[in-house]
Amino acid sequence: MDDSEDVPKDFIKLKSEKLSVDEVSELVISPYCGAVSLFIGTTRNNFEGKKVIHLEYEAYTSMAETEIKKICRDVRQKWPSVQHIAVHHRLGVVPVTEASVIIAVSSPHRAESLEAVMYCINTLKASVPIWKKEIYEDEYSWKENKECFWANSEK
Amino acid sequence: QVSVLYFARSAELAGLRCETLSVPRQITSLQLWEEIVKVHPRLAVIQDQVVFAVRQEYVLLGDQLLVLQPGDEIAIIPPISGG
């Protein structure tokens, strides 16, 4: 097996089990990279004064994976030195403080991986068909990302 | 005959997650929405906030002419909230 080039890879996973920061960072580590940048999205316990019991996520899974692949492709165009990209998103019930999404990017120097991680999460929120339901004590609410251009949150 | 997938609030309003519908091969995206609302009138309340995904590409509700093949997958996409 020829490791000398460490071919850039995208690691995309949608799963209902608890996400692991260790697992996701290890996927992107590379001997050619001096930087690994991470974003972890976690569940807050409150929204507008209401107590959040947990979140529930659902996805149009096949299209979500395709859209995340598009994001990875865009990242590599904008930051060609990026080595590996990993995006893990949890589906189903996510209790408060647990992670819903973990994004990790490796690059030789830190600027590219930091910028690429920010781009990934911002673009994911604008374009990937995943939905979050916030469960409160006596009601629930389907959330709408402000990045989503077809949500009319001002109306 | 196309497959229609419902997600999030649209699945709650329609009461189901997927079904097959018969629609004309050529139809605008707004006309397609109107066909679906005939079957599930409760969906009308979210008309201003949804888009379609036709063969996994986003399509706004409007005059865009869709050329559909049998078995094509159409999804109703309420405002997303991933991440």
TrEMBL record, chain A:
Domain of life: Eukaryota
GO biological process: one example: Mo-molybdopterin cofactor biosynthetic process
InterPro entries according to UniProt: MoaE_sf (IPR036563), MOCS2B_euk (IPR028888), Mopterin_biosynth_MoaE (IPR003448)
Gene Ontology, cellular component aspect: molybdopterin synthase complex
GO MF term list: molybdopterin synthase activity
Keyword list, A-Z: Cytoplasm, Molybdenum cofactor biosynthesis, Transferase
PANTHER family linked to this entry: MOLYBDOPTERIN SYNTHASE RELATED
Protein name: MOC2B synthase
Organism of provenance: Chloroceryle aenea (American pygmy kingfisher)
Gene: Mocs2_0
UniProtKB/TrEMBL annotation, chain B:
InterPro entries: Beta-grasp_dom_sf (IPR012675), MOCS2A (IPR044672), MOCS2A_euk (IPR028887), Mopterin_synth/thiamin_S_b (IPR016155), ThiS/MoaD-like (IPR003749)
Pathway: Cofactor biosynthesis; molybdopterin biosynthesis
GO molecular function: nucleotide binding
SUPFAM superfamilies membership: MoaD/ThiS
Superkingdom as given in the UniProt entry: Eukaryota
Keywords: Cytoplasm, Molybdenum cofactor biosynthesis, Nucleotide-binding, Phosphoprotein
Gene3D superfamilies per the UniProt record, alphabetical: 3.10.20.30
Gene Ontology terms describing biological process: Mo-molybdopterin cofactor biosynthetic process
Entry GO CC: molybdopterin adenylyltransferase complex
CDD domains given in the database record: Ubl_MoaD
UniProt protein name: MOC2A synthase
Species annotation: Chloroceryle aenea
